[in-house]
Amino acid sequence: MKGYEQQDVYIYNSLSKTKEKFVPLHAGAVGMYVCGPTVYSNVHMGNCRTFLSFDLVFRYLRHLGYTVRYVRNITDAGHLENDGESGDDPILKKARIEKLEPMEVVQKYTVDFHTIMAQFNALPPSIEPTATGHIIEQIQIVEKIIAQGYAYEKNGSVYFDVVKFNEEHAYGKLSGRKLEDMITNTRELAAQSEKKNPQDFALWKKAEPQHIMRWPSPWSDGFPGWHLECTAMSTKYLGNQFDIHGGGMDLKFPHHECEIAQAEASTQQTPVNYWMHANMLTLNSKKMSKSTGNNILPNELFSGNNDILSKAFSPTVAKFFMYQAHYRSILDFSNEALLASEKGFHRMMEAYHAIDALPTSAPSSTSISEWRQSCYDAMNDDFNSPILIAQLFEGVKFINAVKDGSATISEADKKMLKETMRDFIFDVMGLEDASNEGSEVTEKLNGAVALLIELRNRARANKDFDTSDRIRDELAAVGIQLNDGKEGTSFSLN
Fold first, then answer.
1. How, if at all, do strands 331-333 and 281-283 pair?
2. Cα 1 → chain centroid
3. Which of the chain's termini has less CB crowding within 10 Å, N or C?
4. With helix as H, strand as E and coil as C, how does 283-335 read?
């Protein structure tokens, strides 16, 4: 029996603003689309949090036995800033600054994105299409929308008629905005003068002479609007209707709102059943911003080459830290929080590696099957990774209790405990075993602590309790906890 036949997953749907039981369109199969990066700069930690949130979703659905087609795009066709309507094209701007061809910029930062995601041990998507590879499909969608009467051409550009669309559909239903309020609060701008309504958005823009990235179309040599590529690529690979669409909270409006409008206008179908949005990342309680310097890139985090944190942190520790907050919650990055997560991660891994050596006796003093289901219950509740981690630490407490003789476990339950810890740590969260990193340092640490434990045992045997207590207390002060049990003294990292 597949895991999804035993577990009911509930997803918070941004469209209905409630948790809904997940029922895929096709039994046993899931179609999921996530908005990928615009590749004109190094991927930042806020981006990483979004992609790692959906890596968790992808991994858990696969763990339950679903066949998942996960599509995540690469935006390599420069669109204009200010929601795709005006301003500079960020790819062209970076090309001028770095004296590169636009596609050299795209290649450079696509490689950076893939490298960082691999360091975080994120699984690659099933399909990773590019905007420039789907210009034909985007033009075809524009033609369909025009044919349905929801778009118009002006001076070589094509705009989506939001007011006309709203007469028969609900523009703003995802973000909760009402078109009437948007119209009331809108100031007419000179750059919007060729549009019928200020709320209309570009489906195709005529390229100015200096705009390098351009393609021929029935209306002009130009380039697609920002919102169009995701509609084209999601429907091409997942169909006119699919299960899950994800992205950052900042994309809810206007990007995802416009995606819904485009899809409904061109296909007359509601495109997505479950909309999911990951929240933002802050740094020291302030919004991350390159302009203010309150920003850190993944490589700066991994190398320790920054002025914000006290030391380097591994990708696995950073990922573990991010999963200690729910994907819909704002998460604050700070030195203290990362240090605490690092200690917790090492404590969890130490307990996992101690399972094989646990003594067994029947019956177990706690129900491992109920604990196992509590881990699934956490993930079934809108992929609640902080509750999952809390349950895993309940497992850590039980492992340590068995080690010191205050709890018991049967052979069968020990096997289930090990499998459950392994499944959720490595398969679902995609964390990596830190014990494989710096093994020489680990060996030296083990040897040094073993020597101190031996000296402490001698002091206790000689009734020199001052020395014995001092060794224990000094080790505790640097985060090494001694644990006295029937089998002798072991240590753990706090």
1. parallel
2. 29
3. N
4. ECCEECECCCCECCCHHHHHHCCCCCCCCCCCHHHHHHHHCCCCCCCCEEECH
